[in-house]
Write a structure and sequence with these properties.
about 0% strand, 3 helices, mainly alpha, elongated
Length: about 80
């Protein structure tokens, strides 16, 4: 899983909607901080979407095995014995 904390900052150029940029500045928003947080959120979302896609066969095989064989330590689950 990607971790972005404590990573150095790097300067970059962005092209943003002029009206949105003007209003953001008027509202006193920290543009770098806001864009950084939103980009990190989107990167995490896409990272996990790709991870799920790349691993869907293994996940399906694992789920099928659990469905067929049950959980390995299920007999030790005291909270499930009444069912």
């Amino acid at each position: 899983m990607p971790h972005f904390e404590d990573s150095p900052k790097r300067a970059t150029n962005l092209s943003l909607n002029a009206k949105v940029l003007d209003l953001a500045r008027e509202l006193g928003m920290n543009l770098s901080q806001t864009v950084d947080a939103l980009l990190a959120e989107e990167v995490r979302k896409r990272y996990w979407a790709r991870w799920n896609e790349d691993n869907k066969e293994a996940i399906a095989a694992y789920n099928a095995r659990i469905e067929q064989e049950g959980l390995p330590l299920a007999s030790f689950r005291s909270f499930m014995k009444d069912r």
